[in-house]
Design a protein that fits this description.
186 residues, alpha+beta, five-stranded antiparallel β-sheet
Length: 186
């Protein structure tokens, strides 16, 4: 059995097993990927967000146990992003090979999308508790440096910014009206 990759970055969180919880999980995956160097509009971010949306929606729809949450674990290690969604229903495991659904059906395409978009995916029994973990992996190349966290400005810097903004407002107020736009500035 291959050794698990040492994670470079990790994110784990618990969500309520509701559509709102699934929506929040999807958004946090997108934000986390942006923080890890894959901006919002990039294919990696959008693909992983779509995979997260499908896996979390399935956890809510098929893995819901009243009073139990689902867990999301996101890992970036050696150019592979792995998303794991764990729920409390052990008896409803996804099929190993999702079949194409009836084109008129309103549901049933989620795992087909995951299988198509992910480089690898599967389901395993939940460790140390009843349930299952459905996971997907996506190989990625780093597109840019991970976002660095901004440092709050020092009080002196804030005072300087306020003074500069005040000077700019005064300067704008002393300009003559622009008559090309009926006396209104744009």
């Amino acid at each position: 059995m291959p050794q698990p990759l040492a994670p470079e970055r990790e994110f784990t969180m618990c969500f309520t097993s509701t559509p709102r919880g699934a929506r929040l999980a999807r958004r946090l995956v997108s934000h986390r990927m942006n923080d890890w160097g894959h901006p919002y509009a990039t294919p990696v971010n959008e693909t992983l967000t779509l995979i997260a949306a499908e896996l979390t929606a399935n956890a809510v729809r098929h893995g819901h146990v009243p009073g139990r949450d689902f867990h999301l674990h996101l890992t970036l290690a050696e150019g592979v992003v792995r998303i794991e969604v764990t729920d409390s229903r052990a008896e409803k495991r996804p099929p190993a090979d999702p079949a194409a659904t009836d084109p008129l059906s309103e549901s049933g395409r989620g795992l087909l999308l995951v299988a198509t978009l992910a480089d690898d995916w599967g389901a395993t029994p939940r460790r140390a508790a009843p349930g299952k973990t459905v996971w997907a992996e996506l190989r990625v190349r780093q597109q840019c440096h991970p976002r660095t966290h901004r440092v709050a400005p020092k009080p002196a810097d804030v005072e300087l910014l306020l003074a500069t903004a005040s000077l700019l407002r005064d300067d704008l107020g002393s300009r003559p009206q622009d008559t090309r736009h009926g006396g209104h500035r744009r």
